[in-house]
Amino acid sequence: MFKKLIFIFILNFLIEISKSTTLPGLFNVIGPFTIGEREETFDSLESYGGIFSIPIGDNTTYPSEFGHNGVVGWRQFNSSIPGQLEIDWSDTIDWSFYDTPFGWEIYLWYAYAVGDFQSTEGSNYIVNCNSARTFYIQTLSSVPGTPSVIKEFTGDFYSYGNGQNIVSLEAGQNYRFYVKMISSTRDNLSPLGKFACQLTPVPIYQVITLIETESLVPDIVGTILASPYGSITVINSGNSDLFGISVVLANSSLSLFNLNISNSANGNGTFNILVGQRLSMSFEIEIKSDSTQLECPMFLELNLVGNSTIILNNINIPFNCSSFESPYLFTFLDFDNTVQYAMAIPPINTCGNSSELCNIMLATHGANVVAADPSWTSVLPRQNNLWVLAPTGRTPWGYDWGSSSRLNVFNAIDALVTQLPGVPLSQKSLYKTDGTKIIFIGHSMGGMGCWSLLSRQGDLALGGACASGFSKLELYLLYDTAPGFAYIDQTLKGILMSSIEENNVDLISSNLVGLPLMARYGENDTVVNPYHSRRIVRMVSEQSQNETAVMISEEPNANHWFNGILNDSFMQNFYNILASNNQYLPDIPKTITISTLNPASSGSRANILILQQKQPFRISKIKLTQVYEKSQLVWIIETSNVRRFAITQTPIRQQFPVELIIDGSSFNNNFFYPDYHFENTKDNTNKKYWTLSNDNSTWIENERNPLTNGPIRQIFEKNFKIIYGTIGQGSATAQLKQGSVYINNFWNNYGRGSAPIFSDVDYIPIYSNEVCSENQNLILLGSSYQNLFTEKLIERADVSFNIDNSFTLDKSYEFSTPGSGITFIIPNSCGKGLVLVVAGIDSVGFENALHSLPKRSGEVSPDFLIVGPEYRGKGYGGILSAGYWSNNFTLSPQSFYTSTI
């Protein structure tokens, strides 16, 4: 009888499986075509009608540098697992032949895999594609001439587990599935391209779905919570927007914890979630006063409630348990009010009562490394007098330790210093920490992060040891093979590349002079060639005029990683030397040049802080020479492309000047930031006239400053809201609304971010009660004739819209070609935050503008970008205009490009 029941169960299971909708396993593939590093938008097939119009699987061939006789055609692949495919093209392409002259960047390619499937049951489905950036589902019409519906989705390119999308399929309907395959050279170290897609039906009663990989709670350290913050991420998997959703404790957790929601966008502890939107829901938890300690194993159990009804229950999040002597995870509120985590390793000794307090060793991980993984934390040795802090950079790939990753680092430091997570209340005084004295270390991508952080925040550095790193992404994988660049001249290319130059350690390597540094790498490193570390060593040594300015540790016969690379006795001796010289930071050299490409991302060096450039996004330099006159220290300062700078009182120096001579003008050194700064009042000339200014409000409100410096990427470096317009036609409103979900979801996928979304009408009462501050940015979707807030806030822009949604720059340059779109930033009303506007002349133009937004590090986007109808096909070659605003946010002839065609 038992065997018969088992047989019936298995039979029923197989029947259900056979009825379920599955993605195709048979794919027609066209490609490969060349693509550049971080080139999101380029598609050669657009020149021949586009992937949705050309015949699928026929004998037509298309030009490609990778093809025999210069062309490629369709090939068919049959996968044993539906929705999955893996290709490296080695049977048709001799990659070594291309590798010799070009290097790894030639491994970058894209192709389309196309397959058909039928939905066996009508339902909402969760669809996700790992290792794919973009995919599409097309409804195939059985009626000739009837237009089909094509829906675009963002894939989970790095396979984080948070790339879920919602699609509604009809029973019996035929669909076509397109995956734009793009190889990931840095991930696979080869030309391999692959994807793995899944289609999962959503139960009809389930309006919201938990994304299990994204649940986050702090470790239990001993018997206490390391920190009070947690979060869960969900997706609205129903057919209607959800409003007023709250997170509550389930009965099993009520006796142990209190839960509080303090930072919801609605202001009342609840959340709104649009259809298809992924949203991170943050909360605070604390142990109840009558619960003296926690015991492991333990779970936090939550429910989601809407309209007083539980809409998702039994969300069980396990706590990891650790001892105080071991690495543990603590959570904190990051710059955008989302909950992120970092790993902490406490000092061996109780250093908080010393005059120097405890200091910090900051460890930045390599690409695709999970900060909490023991394979990473186990190579970070516990130290005397130092906390070891291992931040995430938001995700395993992050933003190459720039932008949002850089901010994540310093928010983790602030959380460690102010909260001392994991330390019992009675012992916090024993571990008090000075977050302004840091030893920077890192490996691979983290080695690049190590160099980058040191070059931007030199006044926080006791020194650094950067292993197997590189100075900039565009040297690690050259950008020049990008086919879109072939269509533009060097003027436009320069403007575009300037938007990522702030991450170029080469250009600001002068800031590294005077810091105790080590470059460590394997002699035979085939992942990050030793050339990169040696290049940085050479540049710092040249600018130090000291051939031994940087210690070199080149491990014979070693590759990218070797035992002890960060923790052998040689490294520990170096750490000990840095940690022992912690009464003061390293002395300022007799001569040093302070450099920046973007004051928004650079801290002070040698107590000099550049606040504003004369020409934005061109290198700014201050050369400092220290001399003694009448036994008193004097700083001779020479400036280049600097309009405002200040002297900081911290870090405290053993010697500080009594006089400043700035480009020949003398000042007493009694005026410090933020109360005072120096302003060069001569514009449009190479003459310099410096004055002392105590204005710290008017210029901030009216001019470009570190809080509003741009470029467009800076919009994602604060808490931001997305506001879509509703005053246009209904179809336009629907597109703008879907565009807001698109932005939120790629921000969630690549950066573990989450943005509240409002219609312009719904945001009016919220905006009226908000105080303009430096803590928030806005993204506005739609022109001033589509979005009430674009109309309200655009008065500070050098852009105007017409009733047909065409637009004009500087009242002089008109753009009215169908398929054109614009993205641009302007300051908010108080000059302390940014507003990003995304708009299009028509639906195609809006989509083009939307897809020009930078999603990852290394993607170019200046202060404004205007793209035309050829943008989808030619990428950079489809850009009509680009540039940087002047310091008054007007069109700058020196930083502006436009095309007349």
From TrEMBL:
<protein>
    <recommendedName>
        <fullName>Peptidase S9 prolyl oligopeptidase catalytic domain-containing protein</fullName>
    </recommendedName>
</protein>
<dbReference type="InterPro" id="IPR029058">
    <property type="entry name" value="AB_hydrolase_fold"/>
</dbReference>
<feature type="signal peptide">
    <location>
        <begin position="1"/>
        <end position="20"/>
    </location>
</feature>
<keyword id="KW-0732">Signal</keyword>
